[in-house]
Amino acid sequence: MRVMFVFHSSFVVELEESVLIFDYYGEGRLPESFGGKRVYFLNSHGHGDHFKREIWGLRKKYPGAVYVMSRDIRVCKEEREEWMYLVRARESYEIGDLKVETLRSTDLGVAYVVETEGKRIYHAGDLNWWHWEGEDKAYNNNMAANYKREVDRLSDRVLDVAFVPLDPRLGSAYSWGMRYFLERTKAREVFPMHCWGEYEVCERVKGERDMQGLLKNYHALRYPGQEWVLCS
User: Fold this and answer.
1) Closest by alpha carbon to 65, among 36, 34, 100, 39?
2) Which of 21, 27, 38, 60 has a beta carbon 3.0–4.6 Å from 7's, enabling a disulfide?
3) Within 13 A of 176's CA, how many CA atoms are on the CB side?
4) How far apart (Å, rounded) are the C-alpha atoms in residues 161 and 112?
5) Single pTM value for the model
6) If you ran DSSP here, which 8-state letter would residue 82 be given?
7) Is 118 helix (H, G, I), strand (E, B) or coil?
8) CA distance 174 to 200
9) 137-152 and 176-184 are packed helices; what angle lies between their axes, rounded to 10 degrees?
10) Nearest CA to 43 among 13, 22, 72?
């Protein structure tokens, strides 16, 4: 399995027969070809840093590509095509060779759990523990409860790869979501995302006292286009 960091929260996961492209919105470079493998775009929600309509045009580059999108992404009748699949939170789907399960985001849209070719891959989208200093206590307590409830749905499953937000805008709370996720799930390989280009946060988290022992198979981001080959 090959993983490539494209930009922001966008990653490519390339398997033997298929390619999963998460939250691509036109920023960052994708490979010119995947050698005829089946290509699936999966967009978690309609925020501009996770989706843009222009990516539909990439079917010219990747013939036969399939698009899986959260239903908050509005697709009018004139735009709808047979290669577009709109998904709801907390539902399960079979799309091509994929088994797709969705969780409810704590912001907008969904998080994805995708099974294919014997692998299970998690992409959080904007499902995160969004603790903002400017919000009142009730908001932040509700956010914590909602986040934990969704992550706990994964506690009994092994995830081969997980992409989890690590957002420096949250100040001292930037790693809370990742910490809880790692404490509650069995993730074999973990990648941070949603770092807004501040890649130093990917190294900083390694020094956090409450993260010790949780980052054994953690892969820090350093630049767009970075690649890893995973053998697990």
Assistant:
1) 39
2) 27
3) 18
4) 12
5) 0.97
6) T
7) coil
8) 12
9) 30
10) 22
Assigned token pair, 218: 């953690």
**Residues 7-22: what's their mean pLDDT?**
98
Place of tokens 């036109």: 26
pLDDT tens, 147-182? Answer: 999 999 999 999 999 999 999 999 999 999 999 999
Both structure tokens of 118:
């014997």
Q: Could you report the per-residue pLDDT of 59-100, keeping only the tens digit for each?
A: 999 999 999 999 999 999 889 999 999 999 999 999 999 999
